[in-house]
Write a structure and sequence with these properties.
mainly alpha; 78% helix
Amino acid sequence: MQKKPALFQKFAAVFADGSRFMQIVGAVLTLAVLNISCLVCMLAIVTGGGAMTALYTLLPEVKGLSFDHAFIQFFRLVRARWKQTLLPWLAALAVGGVLVSAWRVALLLELTNQFLLMLPLMLATAIALLCLLWLFPVLSVQEDAHWISAVRQAFLLGLRELPRSLVLLMLDAGIFLLALWCSASLTRIGLWLFFGLTPLCYLKVQLLYAILHPAESK
């Protein structure tokens, strides 16, 4: 009669390097490392675009990355891509700032009920959102692309894949709401520091993978 594994053996199997549990723990640690690395790089405005591009580059590989390798690879990618992504990142910040200011003025002047006056602003906001939702995921798979062509492709993809764009918008809204919720209490800052960006960005990557990697998804 075959003996059942001892309790110690079962316990050791759970914590073995190749076990499902340890793979999940490793993926969670990798997400935390990528989150901290991205936030650190975004403190310097010039490396913000490189940080987002590196994040979208590494997130599809998160299950196969160790957290120490993810840390090293992230900063290598930022160093390699920050110049390519600097102009689109600054342009994204500038456009976002202008649109937020324009909406604030419209609300203060109570113009939101005047459709014809608001139509150009609504169209500009929609176009900007379509570009920004897809821009850095597109740059993550196009290492040599000029940023203007990447913006054009991001807009066309956003328009063609409109249902996915709406889901991306909801995920980004989730990140924004999480940031607001965490900022309301010092005890929640740790949550934002370790997992403010990467879990929802990982969902975005899974949603876009078949579009951005058509050859690999077949």
